[in-house]
Amino acid sequence: ALRLLQDMAPSHTQPCHLQDTPFFPDTLLHKNLHPHQAAAAALRILQHLFHTLGTNSTHQHWHAQARNDLLNKLQHYIHHLEQCLPDNATPFKGPRNPLLAINKYFRDIHLFLHAHNHSACAWDHVRLQA
Fold this sequence. Notes:
InterPro entries: 4_helix_cytokine-like_core, Interferon_alpha/beta/delta. It is found in: Secreted. GO terms for molecular function: cytokine activity; cytokine receptor binding. One of its GO terms (biological process) is defense response to virus. By secondary structure, this protein is mainly α. The chain has helices spanning 2-8, 26-29, 35-53, 64-84, 98-115, 120-129. The protein has 6 helices and no strands. Helix 3 packs antiparallel against helix 4 (64-84) and helix 3 packs parallel to helix 5 (98-115).
């Protein structure tokens, strides 16, 4: 999947410096999660990535075959994780719900893209974040 993200990049990108680039929440990187919680967090991230990278506004900026291959790979990972999680699982409770941080991060990604008119530069920042 990481190779596919690299392959998606245009061959000639110009360096760009955009303001207010969202960064993945550090709090999610250092949590000791139960395996079901980790799987639920990974599933949510993959679902958001699939949705974000699958939008029509990406096709003009990235190589189509690599993008399609990545979307297929993400769909495979999503399906696999969905099979691992029990149907009745309530993975997170309380105010420090990592799923809320993930949702906020991807909302910020969409706001960032919108603020920069879904430019090639903004999409490349998203690709690097992914």
